[in-house]
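Hi R.,

Here's the chain you asked about this morning:
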Amino acid sequence: MTDMLVPHEELAQLPELELTPQQRVDAWLAEFEYALAERDIERAAGFFATDSFWRDLVAFTWNLKTVEGRAGIAELLTAQLEMTDPSGFRTTEPPTEADGVISAWISFDTATGRGSGHLRLKEEGAWTLLTALQELKGHEENRGERRPKGVVHGANKKRVTWADHRAREAQELGYTRQPYVLIIGGGQGGIALGARMRQLGVPAIVIDKHERPGDQWRKRYKSLCLHDPVWYDHLPYLPFPDNWPVFTPKDKIGDWLEMYTKVMEVPYWSSTTCTSASFDEASGEWKVRVNRDGEDLILRPKQLVLATGMSGKPNIPVFPGQDKFAGDQHHSSQHPGPDRYSGKKAVVIGANNSAHDICAALWEADADVTMVQRSSTHIVKSDSLMELGLGDLYSERALKAGMTTQKADLTFASIPYRIMHEFQIPIYEKIRERDADFYDRLEKAGFRHDWGDDGSGLFMKYLRRGSGYYIDVGAAELVADGEIKLAHGNVRELTKNSVILDDDTELEADVVVYATGYGSMNGWAADLIGQDVADKVGKVWGLGSDTTKDPGPWEGEQRNMWKPTQQKGLWFHGGNLHQSRHYSLYLALQLKARYEGIPTPVYGLQDVHHLS
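And the predicted structure, written out as tokens:
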């Protein structure tokens, strides 16, 4: 702390002091901590600006929760301060100042853990505060100086080797010893959480229907690749090597996930399907029926995590005449690739990511391709997104400037969802100007393009609705050039060899691909547990922004993701690789605390406003 701690309310009255950013932050932290220690909640809340936001990731709330304004902050502290007992607020690097806002990286302690965070300070007080739990005291991960030795030196006739231990665990876990956590879904989300559980010493099993980890990627259409750059996509503990391609092909990411599962020692049951699950309120445990390679088993975990991605079951539309159609028809999630359709007429229903990728692959295979656009779509060129949207946080440029992956993740997390669009709009205004010729050609080709309801572009569309966009890696250029044909409207019916739209347009077709998206993740809960539980937890994903496909009221956080739900012991985990990496930490710490019997009083458990 600085030697000159000036009470916050006097700072604005003493401009002649010309306090440095470091002094201003130190003074704020000292006064804030003193008020917390004295349990003076009104004074503590008064250190925030009138329009202010405190986003907490588990540290204070045992939840993912954002509160707004002094009243919201006071309510949080009234409920949680005594048990949290925070202390030791300090900066971890010199604060910076720009446009009248001081930004500072901080760390702190609570009664049960250690946290880090970020503070944005204006003249009136704190504008934004992020507090994020990083570890639990007494339950730290065995990393760095705590790393395990790996071997017991000396002679021992009863030596148990690493291979012996792993074999014994595989024989016991799920059979004679129950997992505390069962993770359904073995894609990147499930694997990342499984690795976190392993490092925290929580018995957990990841199950997946596929034969091998990574098959979720290998079995998709052959042109599929990650549209996010490598710097954005690291998994916990084990980043991609520095010679990894910027955009990872599907089979390569599949191999990485399989390797990662092995080296991180994630207990992973492949070829395993979950047939049903029910929660016993009396025992506080789940009864989960699974079939593992033909063997029926019952698992009894305390915690059940649905890690099936950010999406639910495929939205497979029903149209008159589907039973009469003579060609192939399937959802994009089941698309086998383009090879068998060379020289054929293909109609793809939809105009978002999967639709563009599949159309481009079919075009490459010399199919005659028509994309049916039902509503407007936001397109952003990959190079522009990388440079203007992600470059300051996730790029070689960012690495050279000292931006670590953890710091980048926390920077993203430090911007409250309520005002995030204000940060995004200027980025997309620059992209609009930079790629004006591209957008002009696209729209002249008849493509219906939008920038989101408020001009905030791709990332907000992703957070609000998880659809309505495409990161262009070439397919949109084919649309702009007329190589991929365009049609507009909704499907009225199918005939033996065509698709008929609601304006009577008839499109000849040998194959119809329904790139029609996915439902809410609670659809999986309905199938596995029951519709009553699905309705009890409500819709998954979205912010309640009251924009297209994201109905209000305002939620403040992603609905039901990575945090407690209205169903005890049921959690949802997923999202892109960035989210699977970052938010798996907070979900893991919540699960670890419960495993160790640490009290976890949840503040602000989400209400249910929408069922799907």
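The first strand starts at residue 48 and ends at 57.

Let me know if you need anything else.
M.
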